[in-house]
Design goal:
Blueprint (H helix, E strand, L loop, with lengths): L13 H48 L5 E7 L2 E6 L5 E7 L2 E6 H44 L1
Antiparallel strand pairs: 1-2, 3-4
Helix pairs in contact: 1-2
């Protein structure tokens, strides 16, 4: 009886391995794109919150009963007058509104900004990890092609 030559790894199919790596590469590219979109959205939200903080400071400087334009949506405004420039009504979730002073409101906004910055930081770490994996896959795929 002759001994059959056994391959080192009978389950290893180089073509399947290349396909698997290519699919993984594509999934990582999609993940990177999604993360970049999330980071962009979060940065826009942070910018909007910082603008809101500046606007709250400007409201404090306005005189009571000053005529202002009140936005009602999609670049449509109505005329109104300020009755109280020391307090605002702030949504705190689930359609619940709460009256807060401007300093309290600014503190809430700063907390929101910090939370968004923390999420952004986590996303940046995830992005770096995905980029490193892509670089490894690119190197492996280029080696297997040669």
């Amino acid at each position: 009886m002759k001994n059959k030559e056994i391959s080192k790894n009978p389950n290893k199919d180089p073509e399947k391995d290349i396909k698997r790596k290519y699919i993984e590469f594509q999934l990582l590219m999609q993940q990177i794109s999604q993360i970049q979109q999330q980071v962009s959205t979060i940065n826009s939200n942070i910018l909007e919150l910082r603008t809101l903080t500046i606007n709250l400071d400007k409201i404090k400087e306005l005189k009571k009963n000053k005529e202002v334009l009140i936005p009602v949506g999609s670049n449509i405004f109505i005329k109104g007058s300020l009755k109280d420039t020391d307090k605002v009504i702030m949504g705190i979730g689930s359609d619940v509104l709460k009256e807060k002073t401007i300093p309290e409101t600014k503190a809430s906004i700063e907390e929101q900004i910090k939370e968004l910055e923390n999420i952004n930081l986590e996303l940046e770490f995830t992005l770096e990890d995905a980029v490193k994996k892509i670089e490894i896959l690119e190197k492996e795929l280029s080696q297997e092609r040669s």
